[in-house]
Design goal:
The complex is a heterodimer of chains A (56) and B (465). By secondary structure, chain A is mainly α. Helix content of chain A is 57%, strand content 0%. The model of chain A has no long low-confidence stretch (mean pLDDT 92). Chain B has 14 helices and 15 strands. Classes of the chains: A mainly alpha (56), B alpha/beta (465).
Chain lengths: 56, 465
């Protein structure tokens, strides 16, 4: 993820990310995408649903 | 009567007429005025209002009325909780401009209904998104054991105020570890109840999927008394369980006989410092817990918790990020912005993984009733620590890593008490006692046994500096 990616993604949501913040936002987004990959790599059964009605 | 006394000792004395609520509360306010400037736990102190409310407790008792099980006990809450008449800061500059809350958060109202007297509100990481309480707007809260170090977060003011003996009881919130982490680093008891067991009505959200409210105290009986006062159904919180909460104070003398206690292995032993692992070993030895249980894919559970928190937090704050981004704390702003732009597929996958993981965790509780794990990998960090730290071959985010052992548990709403261990001359560390959903009673039995055996304790902090 680079700063231009951050700017493009933010524009879709009506967010303006100041130039001074973009590198840090890109670094955090990189970290979140790495976390998302770690989750996505796990072979979940097709029929696993999210739990909008959550009872622990 | 000193506020270093336990909450229940204060309530007993006030109810028996050997102490006046006004004197107890005045003593707490005097201690806060004298000692808090060096610690920065409080962001607002209710001086006159607290004294007036203490007078009301005394009048009720003088008239022969029942002033409640926590009569005259001074308490304080994280400034994430609504308090009627105060703007709910949530650690932010933005919310300081909001009108005062019209009514108390349910948990605050319930403690007040039990006779406790609210003396103020406490510092935190902005919008509860952090583990250190290094708040740029209101300054860092300092760890009472060593003021050059953080108290943990995001409920850092709540833990530090109890550890310092400023008040015997506080409330905090925990999404990924924000009660348990500061409880460990400040050397006090902290309870994150089961998801849905304590109302979050009137509490500013961080991530709806995992937000919990719970108490801090310096002994197990006080923790149970506070939990018993606040737990139970609340129609104002749509996630609150509708079943009644079983009182836990009555569990404290029962001991641990019949409870199967095991140590969590795998993820919960990796990337931890020696102090953290030694604390678990000490607690396990005291409880004669020899079995080991593994929660499969706990590292992915933590990753999924990070994704969901960032997405829900970014979504909740989206309008403020559009219009007031420059007014956020730089410690949180860039992470909320990153969460706001994360793809929906990542969020959905993380929620699906959560459903799978919840089933595996339920299976683990067929083998044990209570599980043990470190609360944090390290004792308190210095204020202003570097962004990253190397552990062996891995580079980790220094602050984020504080939640490595708490996040996989709050992810599926398990009840956890962090119990404190303080060795002479060392900084405190915490051990998590973990149970199946709605089995807080087992946690209180184990915590009380450990306290009775002298394994865990939360003496008022004495600064090393």
């Amino acid at each position: 993820v680079d700063e231009a990616d951050v700017e493009r993604l933010a524009a879709h949501l009506g967010l303006t990310i100041e130039a001074a913040w973009r590198a840090a936002v890109a670094a955090h987004l990189d970290g979140l995408l790495a976390a998302a990959r770690l989750v996505a790599e796990f072979p979940l059964p097709e029929d696993t649903e999210p739990a909008p009605r959550f009872e622990p | 009567m000193a506020t270093e006394s336990s909450a229940l000792a204060i309530a007993d004395a006030v109810r028996a007429g050997t102490a006046r609520a006004r004197d107890v509360v005045a003593g707490a306010l005097e201690g806060i005025a004298r000692r808090d400037p060096a610690l920065n736990c409080f962001t607002s102190v209710r001086h006159d209002a607290a004294l007036a409310e203490a007078d009301a407790v005394d009048r009720r008792l003088a008239a022969g009325g029942d002033a409640g099980p926590l009569a005259g006990v001074p308490f304080a809450v994280k400034n994430l909780f609504d308090v009627a008449g105060l703007a709910t800061l949530a650690g932010s500059k933005i919310n300081a401009g909001q009108p005062p809350a019209a009514r108390d958060a349910t948990a605050v109202a319930r403690l007040r209904a039990a006779g406790a007297v609210l003396v103020g509100v406490l510092n935190m990481d902005e919008y509860a998104y952090g583990f250190t309480t290094e708040n740029t707007h209101y300054g860092p809260t300092r760890n009472p054991h060593d003021p050059t170090r953080v108290p943990g977060g995001s409920s850092g003011g709540s833990a530090a105020a109890v550890a310092a003996g400023l008040v015997p009881l506080t409330l905090g919130t925990d999404t990924n570890g924000s009660i348990r982490v500061p409880a460990a680093l400040c050397g006090v008891f902290g309870l994150k109840p089961t998801f849905g067991r304590v109302s979050r009505a009137g509490v500013v959200p961080l991530a709806w999927s995992f937000d919990h409210a719970g108490p801090f105290a310096r002994d197990v009986a006080d923790l149970a008394a506070a939990y018993d006062a606040i737990a139970g159904p609340d129609p104002r919180d749509p996630a609150c369980a509708t079943s009644a909460a079983a009182p836990c104070a009555v569990q404290l003398g029962r001991g641990t006989e019949g409870l199967r206690i095991a140590v969590l292995g795998g993820h919960f032993t990796r990337l931890a410092g020696d102090e953290a692992l030694a604390a678990v070993a000490r607690v396990a030895a005291a409880l004669r817990a020899r079995a080991e249980v593994t929660l499969p894919e706990a590292h992915r559970a933590r990753a999924a918790a990070q994704v969901i928190t960032a997405c829900e937090g970014g979504a909740y704050h989206l309008e403020r990020l559009r219009t007031r981004a420059a007014d956020f704390d730089p410690m949180t702003r860039d992470r909320f912005l990153a969460g706001a732009v994360l793809p929906a597929a990542a969020y959905t996958r993380a929620q699906r993984f959560r459903a799978w993981y919840r089933t595996r965790v339920a299976e683990a509780f067929r083998e044990a009733d209570v599980l043990l794990a470190p609360t944090t990998p390290w004792p308190a960090l210095p204020i202003g620590a570097p962004m990253t730290t190397r552990i062996g071959d891995e580079e980790v985010f220094t602050r984020g890593h504080l939640g490595v052992f708490t996040q996989p548990l709050s992810f599926v709403g398990l009840p956890v008490i962090s119990v404190p261990l303080v060795a002479a001359g060392a900084l405190p560390v915490g051990v998590q006692l973990i149970a199946a959903p709605f089995n807080e009673a087992a946690l209180f039995r184990v915590a009380a046994q450990l306290e009775a055996d002298g394994v865990v304790a939360a003496p008022v902090a004495v600064s090393r500096h």
